[in-house]
Design brief:
2 copies of one chain form a homodimer. Chain A has 108 residues and is an alpha+beta fold. Chain A is built from 4 helices and 3 strands, in the order H-E-H-H-E-E-H. Chain A binds a DNA duplex (30 and 30 nucleotides) through helix 2, helix 3 and strand 3.
Chain lengths: 108, 108
DNA sequence: TACTATACATCGTTTTTCAAGGTATGTCAA
DNA sequence: TTGACATACCTTGAAAAACGATGTATAGTA
């Protein structure tokens, strides 16, 4: 139905983080948990395929970097990614608004 | 991750409607569209299996009724359904709150 | 040395939802 | 009366999202 919302509720979260600054996968997981007070405990089996898909779609670019003895894959939001972020944000607002409209609407 | 939200976001809408009064399937589709101003255009391929599942889970009971020359299948929220509605409502609030926390949180 | 945290990844399964199609009745206009 | 449209129910097969499980490897710490 509102096919614009569901298959991207997690995309929105990731895109939003990357809209603030470049991050690597593991960092996103911990940052989402921190901000949501552990409501979002994104699994790696969810995150990495998601990042790869967004990269393939041209929304993200990636670079490898060695830091603190570890190799990290930093993701960066492309111009296209910023557009997608805007869309996903609007989708979310539309969806959340519609749910609340249903929950609060006066019965017909 | 937030496995409590997704696989029941539509359940919440349906349970909520039935929390107000008994309704039949087709009516739910139109009522959701009305309240959400067409954000929710639930497909019958989505709705009916959903209703059947909730009935099998004991959240709904059903009765057939003839009205206006048509046979309608009215659904009613059971006690168990009311519990489920409460849970789903809390899940939604928790989820929506977490999304907004991520979107508004100050960067680490 | 062993455990934990960090950091990446893949694979198979489950679940939700959709698109498409099917059946049947009532209403209304051409 | 014929056709179109709304109402009202249903099923099936396919796609996609997310998860759980699992694997690899390194760094730090007890």
């Amino acid at each position: 139905m509102a096919r614009e919302r569901e298959p991207g509720s997690l995309d929105l979260l990731i895109l939003h983080l990357l809209g603030e600054r470049d991050m690597y996968g593991y960092e996103m997981v911990t940052e989402l948990a921190r901000r949501s007070e552990d409501v979002f405990k994104m699994k790696e089996g969810t995150l990495y395929p998601l990042l790869h898909r967004l990269e393939k779609e041209g929304a993200l670019s990636a670079r490898e970097e060695r830091a603190e003895g570890r190799t990290r894959r930093y993701y960066h939001l492309t111009r296209r990614g910023r557009e997608l972020l805007r869309e996903r944000t609007e989708d979310w607002e539309r969806y959340a608004g519609a749910v609340n409209a249903v929950l609060c609407a006066p019965p017909a």
